[in-house]
Structure formats: C-alpha cells, structure tokens
Design a protein that fits this description.
There is one protein chain. This protein is an alpha/beta fold. The chain has helices spanning 3-8, 10-13, 19-27, 40-50, 83-94, 109-118, 129-142, 171-174, 186-189, 193-212; strands at residues 30-34, 54-58, 99-103, 121-124, 146-152, 155-161, 221-226, 231-236. The chain is built from ten helices and eight strands. Strand 5 and strand 6 form a beta hairpin. Helix 4 (40-50) packs parallel to helix 5 (83-94), helix 4 packs parallel to helix 10 and helix 6 (109-118) packs across helix 7. The chain is globular.
Length: 253
C-alpha cells in the first residue's frame, strides 16, 4: 500500500476494527455484483470508493430515463448505454485504481458457475426470483458468501447467506424455488428511490465487512426496512433441513 492509498483509505484505516490489515484484504478482494440498477448502483459506487481490488458487474440492460430517479450510478448523458458500462465509468471516476470487469449478459448458470468461483463475495442486486435462485445455487456450489437484497414500493430486505458456516441458511431455505411467490416489478408498482439506496448501501456494508474480516454479518438474520416508517425489523432465519439446494452443499444436509 503506497502513500496515496494510505491517504485515500485513511478513514477506514483509522477504524480499530478495520485498520491496515482490513484495507489490505479489501484491496485484494474480488466482488461479483449481479445487477447494476437501483441496488447495484450504490453497491458499485461504495465498493469502488472503498478500494475493492476487482469488481465484476453483470447486467444485460441499458440505461433508461425512468431509471434515473433511483439508479444513482447513471446519468442522463448515459441514457441508452449499457448499464455495466455506465456504472463502470462512474466507478472509475471515483477510483481509477481498481480493476472493473463487465459482462453485458443475463446471469445464466454457465456464466455464474465461472464468475462465482472466482469471487470472494457475491452481491445479488437483481430484480427477479429466477436469477436470485440461480445466483444462490452457484454460491452454495462454490461455498461463496452471498449478500442478497430486494426492494419494491417502500419496502426493502436483505440478508447474508454464508454457507461456509454449516448452520447458515441459503436463500432457498427462506424462499423455496418451488413456492408461489408473486413477481412484482417496480415498473408496475413503483419504488421509492431512497429505499433501494438504503438497501444497496447496506449490501455494500455487508460485502465490505466480509472482505475485511470484521463482523458479525447478517447471516442467520433477515433485515426488513419500511421506508414509510423509516423503521427496521430483524427476523431470525434458520437453515431448512429439507432444502433441496442445501443438499448440494459439500457434505450435504
């Protein structure tokens, strides 16, 4: 770590729990971010600001005018551009010293198998259950910690699914893939901009804590945010002994 790095990251280094060692782990870390929209925007910006050494962004969408009310990594000048390219440009403006890899693709099983295996932490910022479950399966298969968030209207939620710990549930333990969950889209129901900012910022916080080795994380807890009341609730969550995805963990259920 050179003198410029010591100055740039000095406010993290000053934290007793973080210090130079924590910053060194962050700077050497690799984070995979699925989705570069409302949640992915603050995640990407805070990971860049913190100096995460390598960030991979996956999103097949383009920036639209309707995104700008909440997707703060993008600007009106970049409407029509790929979101991963727009977000990467914003990240480089904050911190040109990090490596950014972009994939303007839908996160399918084959791509996830390769990218999750190379990551230290995976942050799920997508907007549909099919992709969330695909990301979760890849994280379970490769024993990678997953920071998953979601937001719609005035409500948000997030948790950490860290299957390196045998007691920790995976995403499918809480939201089974065969359950009948209603798919809700912000294009239909709307979303309050600061809610995705709040959840995304907390996702970045959990990812950085995992990289730096400081804790505890949200593993085993589901954090619920009500943007109307500006209130948080925490639910204890447990591993499902009958989870079909957990059965694929090294060692099984």
């Amino acid at each position: 770590m050179n003198d410029d790095d010591l100055l740039r990251y000095s406010r993290h280094i000053l934290l007793e729990e973080f210090g130079i060692d924590g910053q060194a782990r962050v700077s050497a870390g690799r984070v995979l971010v699925i989705g570069a929209g409302g949640l992915g925007s603050p995640v990407a910006l805070y990971l860049a600001a913190a100096g995460v050494g390598h960030v991979t962004l996956v999103d097949d969408d383009e920036v639209d005018l309707t995104n700008l009310q909440r997707q703060v990594a993008h600007t009106q000048a970049r409407v029509g551009r790929l979101k991963v390219e727009s977000a990467a440009e914003a990240m480089r403006e904050i911190n040109p010293g990090i490596a950014i890899e972009t994939h303007a693709l839908r996160a399918d099983e084959a791509l996830l198998a390769r990218l999750v295996a190379a990551a230290d932490v995976v942050v799920d910022c997508c907007d549909n259950f099919a992709t969330r479950h695909a990301v979760n399966r890849a994280c379970v298969a490769h024993s990678k910690p997953l920071v998953a968030g979601a937001a719609i209207r005035f409500d948000g939620q997030l948790s950490v699914y860290d299957t390196r710990d045998d007691a920790s549930p995976c995403y499918a333990c809480i939201f089974p893939p065969d359950a009948a969950f209603e798919e809700t889209l912000c294009a239909v129901l709307g979303v309050f901009g600061p809610v995705v900012g709040t959840v995304g910022t907390l996702q970045a916080s959990e990812a950085l804590k995992l990289l730096a080795g400081i804790g505890p994380s949200l593993a085993g807890k589901l954090l619920m945010f009500d943007g109307r009341r500006t209130a948080f609730d925490t639910l204890q969550i447990a591993r499902d002994p009958h989870c079909s995805v957990c059965a694929q963990r090294p060692g099984g259920v």
